[in-house]
């Protein structure tokens, strides 16, 4: 089960997905709200925190979460403060009841990862792809439009046209024709 703990939060934050099942994981920690209390109100504990990337709005609550639940953090680059364990490109990570493939998808930030599982048909897209063909900013440090386009194309090659849910780092999740939103993001990112 996937729940966005930041859905109704009125603060500058990313989405924060609590994925429950065999391995209870928090995808991104968000910022500027008490995510630890929100986790505690739903589950007894966490097995890990998994990061899509380390922009402040995604990791502002990281220290609080890791100390509250005594868990380690997994991300792409262990040289960044707070990332305890590396997830390799095309490595696998168990989120809830399913094994997801991690795809290194730079362009928005160098350490950006997306996570995809064909079964159950879920993509955690971080800040790469959003609803309605929107895509991650490239005007920040480490941003690179060409790399972002290549990353969107790479995700497009991995996903199945029948996949069921795109969970983005900001905004609503997409559960109606998410494949079309990925394709549109690729087209929109190419426009000047």
UniProtKB/TrEMBL annotation:
<dbReference type="InterPro" id="IPR051453">
    <property type="entry name" value="MBL_Glyoxalase_II"/>
</dbReference>
<keyword id="KW-0862">Zinc</keyword>
<dbReference type="InterPro" id="IPR036866">
    <property type="entry name" value="RibonucZ/Hydroxyglut_hydro"/>
</dbReference>
<dbReference type="GO" id="GO:0016787">
    <property type="term" value="F:hydrolase activity"/>
</dbReference>
<dbReference type="InterPro" id="IPR001279">
    <property type="entry name" value="Metallo-B-lactamas"/>
</dbReference>
<feature type="domain" description="Metallo-beta-lactamase">
    <location>
        <begin position="13"/>
        <end position="170"/>
    </location>
</feature>
<dbReference type="GO" id="GO:0046872">
    <property type="term" value="F:metal ion binding"/>
</dbReference>
<dbReference type="Pfam" id="PF00753">
    <property type="entry name" value="Lactamase_B"/>
</dbReference>
<protein>
    <submittedName>
        <fullName>Beta-lactamase</fullName>
    </submittedName>
</protein>
<keyword id="KW-0479">Metal-binding</keyword>
<keyword id="KW-0378">Hydrolase</keyword>
